[in-house]
Amino acid sequence: MANKGPSYGLSREVQSKIDKKYDPELEERLTEWIMAQCGAGVGRPEAGKTGFQVWLKDGSVLSELINSLYNAGERPIKKIQNSGMAFKQMEQVSQFLQAAEKYGVVKTDIFQTVDLWEGKDMAAVQRTLMALGCLAVTKSDGHYKGDPSWFHKKAQENRRDFSDDQLKEGKSVIGLQMGTNKGASQAGMTGYGRPRQIIN
Hints:
By secondary structure, the chain is mainly α. Helices cover 46% and strands 0% of the residues. The chain has helices spanning 9-20, 24-38, 49-57, 60-67, 86-103, 113-117, 122-139, 164-171.
């Protein structure tokens, strides 16, 4: 990858907007979770966006993370490489992204490899990790390690099956959204087309 110089004009404005979306508090929470999930072997990044990016950049920490959410025989990334070569690191990151999508992370929540590798959009990286954490907590299959309050649980289906008799009963009920007909009468109403009687 070629090193890019500073951006100017519109490119600079766009990049500064993207940079403002990055949340340092969320970075701390994600770091704590990754260390709890993978163990102390993954180390701790330097504080700040650049430290977080360098820590995740080669893809090995991300691969450890996604593998820790599976049973030993079912791990999606078979070989985790600690390579200094750029294309190997980017390949490792893209393997994580494929595994995260298979795990259930929605495609719109997944970052692009260059977002992490070049540090272009670290907020997108945070979004992906948040979505992964939320899914891990929601699945509650025993693989999640860490404080469950770090992530919110996703809504789950709550199916209800009604019998035919119950469905027929429901058709005769007037819902309160439509108003009520209790106490309604036409007392005092005049026939259509006749003027209203006003008595002094």
